[in-house]
Amino acid sequence: MPVKCRKCQSAKAEVIIPYARLSLCPNCFSEFYVSRIKKTVKEFNMFNENDIVGVAVSGGKDSMALIYALRQAYPKLKVKALHINLGIPEYSAHCQTKVEALTKSLNVDLHIFDLKSKLGFSIDEFKKTVHGGKICSVCGTIKRHVFEELACSHGVNVLATGHNMNDILAFMFKNFLYGKWDQLVRLKPVLPPLAEAMPRKVKPLLRSPENENLLYCLHNEIPFREKNCPFSSEIKGRKYQKAIEAMVPYNPHFLHQLLNRFLEIIPLLEDKLTKPALMRCKQCGFPSSSEICAYCRRISLIKMGKID
Asked: Which CATH number fits domain 39-226+238-304: 3.30.1360.180, 3.40.50.150, 3.40.190.10, 3.40.50.620?
C-alpha cells in the first residue's frame, strides 16, 4: 500500500526527508522547499520587498531552483536574472538556452554578459596561461567580479547566489582544516557591500541540501543544464563534501548540526580578525586589497598574451 503524504494526507508520498521525518507528495514538498527559503531569508534579513534582487543564474539546478522558488515565494519582489556566457564551446550555449527558457516562462528580466563579445576572450583561453591548471579558480574570480558589475549596471542592490548547503559546508570544512579563517568568514549568509552602490550578497539556499534542489527542479519541470563543464574539477573539489556526507547515514541531522555550529563560530572569528584595508583598483575601480585586483591581474594575462 502506497504511503500517503504526511502533510495533505491524500496524495502519494514521493519525497522522503529523513532529517525532518517527512514523507511528502510533490506539491507539499514544493511548499516545504519554498517555505524554508522564506524562513532563511527572514532569519538572516537577506532582503525586503523594496529591494531589487539579482539572481546569479548559471543554468545549473541550484541557481535555477533558486530563481524559480523566489518567484513563488515573493511574487511582488523585483527579481532580475544575471547570467555570464563563459564562451566554453557547446557548454555555454547550452547553459544560456536553459536560462533563457526559464526566465522567459517566469517573466523575469535577463541580463547576459558574454565574455567573448565584451572582453574579447573566453574562459578556455586561460589554459594557455600560468593559471592553466587552475581554471576553476580563475573562473570563480572572473564570475564574482562580473556578477557584481552586472548588478551595479542594472540597479541590483542584493545579489543572490545558488550556493547550496552541501557546497557551503564543504568550503567551510576545507577552510576550517587549513585555518583559512578569513575565507571561512566570507561564507556567512549575508555579505555587506564592499563599497557604496555595490550589492550585498546573500545565500538563500543556505539550508537547502543539494539533492532537494534537484528534486525541486524535477517535480516543477524547471529546465537546467544537463551538461557538465569540461573544466570542472569535480572529483578533487567534492572530496570534502563526500567526507561530510559520509556521516549522514549515521545521523540524518548531521549536515544541519554542522552548519549551525559553523554559523555560531563565524561571528566569533569575525571579531578576532583584522579586516584588510580596501582601496580602489587602479584599472577597474572596484574595491581591492591591492593596487591591481585579482580580476584585472587575470585579465591582463590574456590581453598581454602571457603564457607558460
From this structure: 3.40.50.620
